[in-house]
Amino acid sequence: MAKISIDPWGYFSVKDYDELIGQFGIEPFTDELLSKIPEPNKLMRRKVVFAHTDFGRVVDAIIQKKEFYALTGIMPTLEQIHLGTKLVIENMRFFQEHGAKTFVLVADLEAAATREVSLEESRQRALDFHIPAYIALGLDPKKTVFYFQSTNEKVKNLAFIFSNKVTLNEYRAIYGNTEPARMMSSILQAGDILFPQLEVRMPGVIPVGPDQSVHILLSRDIVNRTKSTFNFIPPSGLYNKFTPSLDGDLKMSKSKPQSCITIPDDINEACKKIRRALSGARKTLADHRKYGAIPEKDMCFQLLAQHFIEDDKELKRIYDEYKAGKMTTGEIKDITCEKLTEFMKDFERKFEKAKKIVPNLKFIQ
Ligand code: TRP
Q: What does the DSSP assignment read for 273-305?
């Protein structure tokens, strides 16, 4: 039995990623596992991906060029996405480029049940904003299957059937509460996660932030209990760290707007926030030159590592110079602001282009 519970819709109370390892079937993302992955992306190389569930199965499928799938869901509550979502999309892109059948669903029923967003509003916002944003962030629309929960009969039917495989006590132990709307949403999410296997029995990976890991556990339990009917392969999970709040907290959150950058964002405002972000530099310049900075504690360095610098050598150069006290905190903030500006402008361009192709997308029913 897990020692902690996770509320995917509420406050994430875990203080440290290590607390999660060993719970809910979450295993550490080791160097050994990393070494088996063909052309790992920067999130894997830099251990922004910190844990997984049964991911070896997916790595084998990639290496042996066997069929597998990757799936993620969009929660269309606001016309913006947070940087954590960008990490998930980057992992989705990695799987897509390595042969995964790719599924992106709009969680309109979940948004209606848990966030009081109407189905119409969800649909419109997903078409106007989220779907083009996901494409702008690198998903190939020609190779991605999109659907809405509310119009996917198969997913809803699966959820109904699964509902008889979960007990209240189990649910309470994992999620910490038993609100019917949330229970329905997570069982529906198990429907999303397993739906691709109605067509082809294959391994699948769900890249998520750690707050969503419990949904994967539930889906895996359901797979075990529906063996005789469905015989699904248990889905794998890949977990990325959150992007930290600019004040140093574990997770960037809109409840602290001064420490949060969204996509899109006002570039000038975002750069002002970067200027005030928690720094890993010493208190005085003299000390800084003498002892050097602590890049691990510097939120700008974290942003560069998680989001804005692809090239490992370039990142290492910054790390080394900053740590040695040669680069100042002002300089690392300049670099971060410059890279962020470049990213936001590039995003805007790609977003406008992606919007034009949304009317041609086919959604499965
Ligand atoms: N619950 C997810 C969120 O809050 C959305 C979602 C629904 C999802 N179904 C999914 C995510 C399946 C991953 C896989 O963002």
A: HHHHS---S-SSHHHHHHH---GGG-HHHHHII
> How many CA atoms lie within 13 Å of 340's alpha carbon, on the beta-carbon side?
28
The answer to whether the CB of 72 is under 6 A from ligand 1 is: yes
Site to substitute for ligand 1 among 189, 194, 208, 213, most atoms within 8 A of C-beta: 189
pLDDT digits (tens, 9 = 90+) for 93-140: 999 999 999 999 999 999 999 999 999 999 999 999 999 999 999 999
- Cβ pair 292, 318 in contact under 8 A: no
Distance 344 CA to ligand 1 centre (A): 25
Note the pTM of the prediction, 2 decimals: 0.96
What pLDDT does residue 177 have?
87
Indicate if ligand 1 lies below 6 Å from the C-beta of 213.
no
Question: Which of 95, 212, 213 to mutate to test ligand 1, by most ligand atoms within 8 A of the CB atom?
Answer: 212
CATH of region 257-351: 1.10.240.10
> Stretch 177-183: mean pLDDT, rounded?
94
Indicate the CATH number for domain 17-242: 3.40.50.620
Helix axis angle for 213-225 and 168-175, nearest 10°, is: 150
Domain ranges for the chain, please list them: 17-242, 257-351
- In whole angstroms, what is the distance from residue 322 CA to residue 144 CA? 41
Please identify, by atom number, the ligand 1 atom nearest to the C-alpha of residue 8: 4
